[in-house]
Amino acid sequence: QDGTIEFGGRRDGQVKIRGHRIELTAIEQKLSSLAGIRNVCVLPIGTGADAFLGAAIAADHDDRDAWAATLARDFPDYMVPERFVVFPHLPVNANGKVDRKNLQAAIAQADHVRAVEKTQSTASEDLIADHFETLFPGKEITPSSDFFALGGHSLLAMRLAGMIETQTGQRPKIQDIFTARTIANIATLV
Fold first, then answer.
1. I need a labelling partner for 131 at 20 to 30 A (CA). Which of 12, 85, 113, 188 fits?
2. Bridge partners, 45 (sequence order)
3. DSSP code of 9?
4. DSSP H helical segments within 23-153, as ranges?
């Protein structure tokens, strides 16, 4: 009536996270094709440099590692959700559609404290794990945690190398961190 145009955002399932344009429906379709998954909703969580992908999955079992590995084979790292939250059924709104707003909040607030693994970790692994916890606060950290799957990039790799040098006197090469990727493998560099 007054000539004002209001832009309500994209409606095609694309989001941009840390400079990468991501097609959410492609990720959802791949996850939906996996055995045991009844429904899935992939969403951007957070804003700006802290934004990441989260996946809400309706399934009878929790197989996050296998789901992430499957996606990592078919998609670049930035298209693999950093957090998977499993529900018996995805919540729906009054219109019968998946309640994306409440799912975003649930994924953002999901409890991701450092997991205790059955294997004993070395002092080097503990040191690297502590640095990962500093670089990726609130994310689940285990010896098999992947630097890039957690949201790592070249600037964080430089920061990690500096943190390691401060503690050990040895500075790993950035390329070696890129190649090693996991806490257990990065620990062998020091």
1. 85
2. 52
3. -
4. 24-32, 64-74, 100-109, 123-135
pTM of the model: 0.55
Q: How many helices (H) and strands (E) are present in the chain, helices listed first?
A: 7, 5
Residue 11: pLDDT over 60: no
Coil, strand or helix: which one is 87?
strand
Q: How far is CA 11 from CA 16, 18, 96, 169, 188, in A?
A: 13, 20, 18, 51, 46
Do you know the residue count of the chain?
Answer: 190
CATH architecture of 14-109: 2-Layer Sandwich (3.30)
Nearest residue to 141 (alpha-carbon basis) of 114, 180, 120, 177: 114
Name the CATH superfamily, with its identifier, for domain 123-187.
Answer: ACP-like (1.10.1200.10)
**Nearest alpha-carbon partner for 53 in 72, 80, 31, 35:** 80
Q: Where are the domains of the chain?
A: 14-109, 123-187
- Can you give the pLDDT at residue 37? 95
Confidence band, pLDDT 50/70/90 cuts, at residue 111: low
Provide the pLDDT for residue 64: 86
Indicate the average pLDDT of the chain.
Answer: 84
Centre a 10 Å sphere on the Cβ of residue 165 and count the other Cβ atoms it contains: 13
